[in-house]
Structure to design on (418 residues):
């Protein structure tokens, strides 16, 4: 870092005893192994007592990944804020192991360096060192390298296992696509996606439903409505909501939501794509880092004839591009009376342009909307441009606005606009 660091004994200038806080971070994986905060706090407490340091505080992040930086960890962020107080509230931060500092170089070093700049150092119980000495900094560099290497090894083994499961046809994990559910949940190596349809027969009632959520019923009913209404998705959503066929969250369907669920290509083709190339993390060679994309065949929700009928009914002619002059310079910049904002939304076949309040968009068909009027685009844009020109020629007004915005007096003067 280009600076000479004093020894830990000299940090608390004029103080007889170093003041220390402990930072306790345990990840979800550590908790699963039984290494919780109580386990690490005993280690740090004994260490501070052995060193003769005064324990003045504890900061704890439970179930938090070591790949997160300081500002992304709740209590570590608080620790850093406290460290900047004047007078300095502590001299040492004690952690049980180097990996508690961070699992990546960026997450590890940034807050350690920030503390060094403040004259605060980090001590590690395991291997008994701190970064106030050359030998301690050397050990810390090795700990940082080991923590990152260990993280990559764990990630590689985990991702490799998930890839192998998918290659064997098992469900690799995560949330099932709408319309399907995970069968044999909790049985290692036997989990798979099956259509989410009723399996309770006469024993399935509204009061005592069976395990499935009956999402297949919703999708099949939605397909019937989509064909009937020729792709009018608002009518499709209205019909589903009227029959009490709600979405997975138990809320009414919006036309965009049901359309995205029903017209999903993987759903229509009866497949599940693991590690789609669209979202895969690629290496320098352009290949997926954690494994190739895998397509798993599923029991189809619809027959080929039903899919073809749905595609015909919902196909729309391509819309022509908007003609010249369809530019809305104030879109999202005008606050409406209802608290929303205005956007350009004039129909393609209209001869004039307008701004429309976003509060008029239904959260779902039938939901309440605002009564804000449309605004003539040409008129409001002309007015706004006139006001801007006036403002640029009014140095005093610009000064007043700047002072109000910055909350302080602006020095210097503004030159007159030419």
């Amino acid at each position: 870092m280009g600076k000479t660091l004093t020894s830990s004994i000299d940090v608390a200038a004029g103080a007889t005893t170093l003041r220390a806080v402990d930072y306790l971070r345990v990840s979800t994986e550590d908790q699963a192994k039984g290494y919780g905060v109580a386990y690490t706090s005993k280690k740090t407490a004994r260490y501070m007592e052995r060193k003769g340091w005064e324990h003045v505080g504890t900061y704890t992040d439970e179930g938090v990944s070591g790949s997160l930086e300081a500002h992304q960890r709740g209590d570590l962020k608080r620790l850093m804020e406290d460290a900047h107080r004047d007078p300095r509230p502590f001299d040492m931060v004690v952690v049980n192991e180097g990996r508690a500092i961070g699992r990546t170089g960026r997450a590890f070093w940034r807050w350690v360096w920030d503390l060094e700049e403040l004259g605060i150092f980090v001590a590690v119980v395991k291997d008994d060192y701190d970064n106030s000495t050359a030998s301690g900094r050397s050990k810390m560099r090795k700990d940082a390298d080991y923590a990152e290497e260990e993280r990559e090894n764990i990630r590689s083994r985990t991702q490799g296992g998930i890839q192998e499961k998918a290659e064997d046809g098992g469900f690799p994990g995560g949330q099932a696509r709408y319309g399907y559910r995970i069968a044999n949940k909790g049985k290692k190596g036997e989990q798979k996606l099956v259509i989410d349809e009723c399996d309770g027969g006469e024993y399935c009632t509204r009061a005592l439903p069976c395990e499935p959520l009956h999402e297949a019923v919703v999708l099949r009913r939605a397909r019937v409505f989509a064909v009937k209404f020729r792709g009018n998705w608002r009518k499709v959503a209205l019909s589903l909501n009227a029959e009490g066929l709600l979405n997975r969250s138990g809320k009414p369907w919006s036309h965009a939501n049901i359309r995205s669920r029903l017209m999903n290509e993987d759903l229509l083709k009866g497949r599940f794509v693991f590690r789609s190339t669209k979202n895969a993390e690629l290496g320098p060679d352009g290949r997926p880092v954690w494994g190739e994309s895998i397509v798993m065949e599923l029991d189809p929700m619809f027959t080929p004839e039903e899919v073809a009928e749905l595609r015909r009914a919902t196909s729309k002619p391509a819309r022509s591009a908007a003609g010249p002059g369809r530019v809305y310079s104030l879109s999202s910049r005008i606050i409406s009376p209802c608290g929303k904002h205005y956007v350009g939304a004039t129909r393609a076949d209209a001869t004039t342009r307008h701004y429309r309040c976003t509060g008029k968009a239904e959260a779902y068909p039938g939901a309440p909307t605002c009564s804000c009027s449309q605004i003539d685009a040409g008129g409001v844009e002309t007015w706004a441009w006139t006001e801007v020109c006036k403002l640029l020629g009014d140095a005093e007004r610009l000064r007043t606005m700047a002072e109000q915005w910055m909350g302080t007096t602006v020095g210097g003067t503004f030159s007159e606009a030419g």
